[in-house]
Amino acid sequence: MDVLQRSPDNGTEESSILETVTAVVSGKPLSCPNHDGNVMEFYCQSCETAMCQDCTGGEHAEHPTVPLKDVVEQHKSALKVQLDAVNKRLPEIDSALQFISEIIHQLANQKTSIVDDIHSTFDELQKTLNVRKSVLLMELEVLQTQLDTLLEGQESIKSCSSFTAQALSHGTETEVLLVKKQMSDRLNELAERDFPLQPRENDQLDFIVETEGLKKSIHNLGTILTTNAVASETVATGEGLRQTVIGQPMSVTITTKDKDGELCKSGNAYITAELSTPDGSIADGEILDNKNGTYEYLYTIQKEGEFTLSLRLYDQHIKGSPFRLRLIKSADVSPTTEGVKKRVKSPGSGHVKQKAVKRPASMYSTGKRKENPIEDDLIFRVGTKGRNKGEFTNLQGAAASTTGKILIADSNNQCVQIFSNDGQFKSRFGVRGRSPGQLQRPTGVAVHPGGDIIIADYDNKWVSIFSSDGKFKTKIGSGKLMGPKGVSVDRNGHIIVVDNKACCVFIFQPNGKIVTRFGSRGNGDRQFAGPHFAAVNSNNEIIVTDFHNHSVKVFNPEGEFLLKFGSNGEGNGQFNAPTGVAVDANGNIIVADWGNSRIQVFDGSGSFLSYINTSADPLYGPQGLALTSDGHVVVADSGNHCFKVYRYLQ
Question: Are strands 327-328 and 244-245 parallel, antiparallel or unpaired?
Fold first, then answer.
């Protein structure tokens, strides 16, 4: 077997060559495997193998041979050249390892943030599902309200009849005279009352749901974005590099490319720009992401000087950066430059700011907001779940006084808590006990112009009136209300009560006398399905949120229907069970959209205007809301057991 015989196994061949070269270099003679004891001193070029003197006269007699030492020296020279070439690769590999390690470290840091975002997103989706489930379960209470109305009517008739019969049978003449008017009015009222004698629904009950589309959407929900753009291939072009007009907006287009010079087709790359002078002053500018792999840098230089523009992609200078800008005065502007000015002033709708990004108005917003003067944002939040002062358990109603106070109906804690406009706790009253006017389940709260505090007590089925310092004064609506939810006060000082169970609205005088009553259960214009809260505008019109009909309805002071707006859905102007409502000085209507966990703003005719910006600290099942005396919006965030105050500038 020849020592340097070719082998299909490259590893074996290299090993054999190395052994041979090592032996020759070290001076150790190589023994011929075919002729024991003979030293291999020759090399057959045809067979590429070492051999001894006897081999040259045998099977290799016709082959050209050379001294083995000469061949080894040639191999050494060739290997040294290859070794030098390979060693030259080490610095660039070390640099690449360092660069990739830095990127991996940065990705690890970003991964933590993205993991939090993913958890937050799916937690919000779970909350939305839970809210929708609650709405559906509440809607299962078919006919229960009608049954409660009939039972209450039956009890009233039996009680009144028994009392009257007793008075007629056993009462003295004086007693009959004393109760005659009272009982006569009561009997007339019961005789004329419109009882719901026919079932409003039949005995069919189904649950219809289509989940396939939702499942597909969830299956494809979310995308992990990265980019393969590299700085060394990315280029910048545009009039803003050729000549810069002092005092006018200029534009530079940045086109990202990958390592092969191919265009990147997705945005979201991290690009920074710095426009500076030798003395260190920096000019302002912003980067717009076109979302297609290209970006625009918009800038304006206000003074003369030598300016340098550095454009970096992932902290690496792009091709040609830094750029030295050529400045010209506005008097020298060419028609081409004027064209740039006009284009830069109105970037296309596809642009998205990469810096100083304004948060979307709502997680449900389409981004196509109508032009309106309202800007909004969270100022502060107050409260956590609990039973102590400043803590809440299922807070419901919210109101604000002209004296700078915020009032919250803390339903499960059976009290009303009062705060200053800046969120400082002031007092509370109605905490469970045996005091007069003990609250059972306060759901709505309002402030009378005279300072009294009006509270809808759902479980007591009446409205309680307290003084401004929390002392019980009286109650109204007892025996007439079935489930008062929201309360408000109109321009005449009348008390508006939304009866959630009876699906109607009562208007009382402060002494408890009924002014009027309107509404019944159903989905017609003058009907309700679980109405919640009411507000009154400057025309003394009553605005009511119709929870299960997913709409808002407006009535005149006499209870005549004027208009309604809203339908079931998540789009602009749609609702998923509206709750709290308030009216601003311009007549705009602010509505808490419970199932969609957002707040929408409409004009007085019901046209959608805007969202309150709640994205920084998302709502979960908002209930009552009101406008504070300093012009902010306060909302009872029932699911998060706190109330929040938002900026609301007009």
Answer: parallel
Does the global pTM surpass 0.70? no
List pLDDT tens digits, range 46-68.
Answer: 888 888 888 888 878 888 888 88
pLDDT digits (tens, 9 = 90+) for 583-610: 999 999 999 999 899 999 999 999 998 8
Q: How far is residue 632 CA from its own chain's centroid?
A: 21
One DSSP character per residue, 207-267 reads -----HHHHHHHHT---------EEEEEEEESHHHH-EETTSEEEEEEEEE-TTSPBP---
SS3 string, 4-70, reads: CCCCCCHHHHHHHHHHHHHHHHCCCCCECCCCCCCECCEEECCCCEEECHHHHHCCCCCCCEEEHHH
Q: Residues with Cβ < 8 Å from 200, sequence gap 6 or more?
A: 143, 146, 521, 522
CA 247 from centre of chain: 38
End-to-end CA gap in the chain: 98
For residues 408-428, average pLDDT: 94
Task: Give the separation between CA 99 and CA 259, rounded to whole angstroms.
Answer: 15
634 closest CA partner among 375, 391, 401? 401
**Is residue 335 helix, strand or coil?**
helix
Whole-number Å distance between alpha carbons of 307 and 244: 10
322-359 as b/e, with b when 16 or more CB fall inside 10 Å?
A: bbebeeeeeeebeeebeebbeebeebeeebeebeeeee
Q: Which of helix, strand or coil describes residue 550?
A: coil
**Alpha-carbon 256 to chain mean position:** 30
- Look up residue 445 and give its two tokens: 């709260």
pLDDT at 220 over 60: yes
Span 543-556, pLDDT tens digits: 999 999 999 999 99
Closest CA to 636 of 470, 489, 416: 416
Cβ atoms 368, 608 nearer than 8 A: no
Q: CA-CA distance, 433 to 445, in Å (whole number)?
A: 20
CA triple 49-54-56, angle to 5 deg? 50
CB 578 within 8 A of CB 545: yes
Weakest mean pLDDT among 4-8, 259-263, 379-383, 449-453: 4-8
Which residue, chain included where needed, has tokens 């393969």? 228
